[in-house]
Sequence to fold (132 residues):
Amino acid sequence: EEMRDEKLAKLMTRLQALCRGYLMRVEFKKMLERREAIFTIQYNFRSFMNVKHWSWMKLYFKIKPLLKSAESEKEMQNMKEEFERIKEELAKSEAKRKELEEKMVSLLQEKNDLALQVQAEAETLADAEERC
Fold:
């Protein structure tokens, strides 16, 4: 029984060591990724600090907001055009709907007239059959 306990203890210790090793490797990998990200950010910031005083970069910084406003104006114009197009389509569909409703009313009236005519003819036919 003692041998079994010793073997079991060794197995559990080995399993715990493997799990801890795996977790530490994962943590180390995350630390390396963070370190690489920090180096990249520092490199980019240093590069920016070197470039920001150049005259063409100053010009770019002044023009960049204007580009966004021109883009937003263009987008607004496109939206207005789309709105007008949809508004026209709505007006056309409303006109067509009204036309179809009027046609439906006239057809219903015609149907009712024909039904009355058929009923009247059926009555006259019934009267004629009774006479004969």
About this structure: The helical segments are 2-51, 55-131. The mean pLDDT is 93. The CA atoms of residues 37 and 43 lie 10 Å apart.
